[in-house]
Amino acid sequence: MAPSRKALCSPPRAPSQPHTSPPTHTDTGGGTHNAFTPPPPDGTPPQRPPGVFREGYFCIPPSPGCHAAVLPHGSRVVNGQDAVPYSWPWQISLQYERDGTFSHTCGGTLIAPDWVMTAAHCISSTLTYEVVLGEYDMSSAEGPEQRIPVAADDIFVHPKWNRFCAACGNDIALLKLRRNAVLNDYVQTGRLPPAGTVLPNGYPCYLSGWGRLTTGGPLPDKLQDALMPVVDHEQCTQPDWWGSLAIRTTMICAGGAEQAGCNGDSGGPLNCQAEDGQWEVHGIASFVSSLGCDTPKKPTVFTRVSAFNDWIAETMENNS
User: Fold this and answer.
1) What does each C-alpha distance from 222 to 11, 298, 320 come to in angstroms?
2) In the predicted structure, residue 266 carries a pLDDT above the cut 70
3) Better-scored residue on pLDDT, 149 or 64
4) Are 259 and 205 in contact (CB under 8 A)?
5) Do the beta carbons of residue 43 and residue 58 sit within 8 Å?
6) CB-based contacts of 283, cutoff 8 Å, min separation 6
7) Against a cut of 0.70, is the pTM above it?
8) Is the confidence at residue 3, as pLDDT, over 60?
9) Residue 158 catalytic?
């Protein structure tokens, strides 16, 4: 029997976790990061390539504005840390309306000025959504926030997504915003990896989100991030890990017992730095173990973005 999975969504300012086996898709956001970030497999921190540094952000031309990504020195999304403010400018908060108030349920990625990518399990046909960009501390209005509504007809869930089977994959959805986001130092589009890209075991990536800080624990006000090294398909499908029934080749495993995604992180980006220094969004937080967000040998599971480039492009083109 495949290990049980739990989704990473969250209800009103509740943590949104990745799904766990068997998938229990609960819209309750809450990513958890450890206060400790392990070094990459070779023991050295990821190096920033030559580029332009300004206002504490690392930019590589010719990206519009600035793809501001600052490497964390430690981590909490379970056991992550407070992210450097606005250091993941493509990170969004997906929020739903209840009793006239919008609350965080999942993360996501701005992939074009008017398009957001998130997890399919974050979406309910009965809810009204808006996307918040330029967000960092949810406990206060800091100024850069942009709130943009999403019409029900502009939500596109992958046609092969099955909400009763997280392990079947296809946990991806696109949302077309009612108006374009204003790109600036706080809001930027994330870059997608080339189609078919598969990262090697141990590749250093970072999960960001407002998910729970511990299994069943509190949701953070400030955006968290954590180092989440890739666990390759061969390792992740070992019988004493997730096993071959739970993990498809269209998924990525990352993290481990110390750093993990948790409720509220669902739909959020797995950020990985490419050879040219640019950051790419390789994963969409999908599910974790029902035994706990940071269960040993049950790394966080992400939808592998590079397996869906064609569907993303087609959906955006057909609904422009």
Assistant:
1) 17, 26, 33
2) yes
3) 149
4) no
5) no
6) 205, 252, 254, 269, 270, 302, 303, 304, 305
7) yes
8) no
9) no
Which of 26-30, 181-185, 288-292, 315-319 has the weakest average pLDDT? 26-30
Residues 6+ apart with CB under 8 A from 230: 199, 200, 201, 202, 203, 205, 252, 253, 254, 272
Active site residue 171: yes
Q: Is 274 exposed, middle or buried (0-12, 13-18, 19+ CB in 10 A)?
A: middle
**Catalytic residue selected from 33, 67, 121, 282:** 121
Catalytic residue among 87, 266, 286, 289: 266
> pLDDT per residue over 122-173, tens digit each?
999 999 999 999 998 888 888 899 999 999 999 999 999 999 998 999 999 9
Task: Spell out the residues 6+ positions from residue 40 whose beta carbon is closer than 8 angstroms to its own.
Answer: 46, 202, 204, 227, 229
Complete domains list, the chain, with CATH: 1-320 (2.40.10.10)
Residues contacting 173, CB < 8 A, separation 6+: 117, 118, 119, 120, 122, 123, 155, 156, 157, 158, 161, 267
Report whether the peptide linkage leading into residue 194 is cis, meaning its omega lies within 30 degrees of zero.
Answer: no
Active site residue 121: yes
Tokens of 245: 């029934």
SS3 274: coil
Amino acid found at 40: P
27, 171, 225, 294: the catalytic one is 171
What share of the chain in percent tops pLDDT 70?
Answer: 70
Give me the amino acid identity at 11.
P
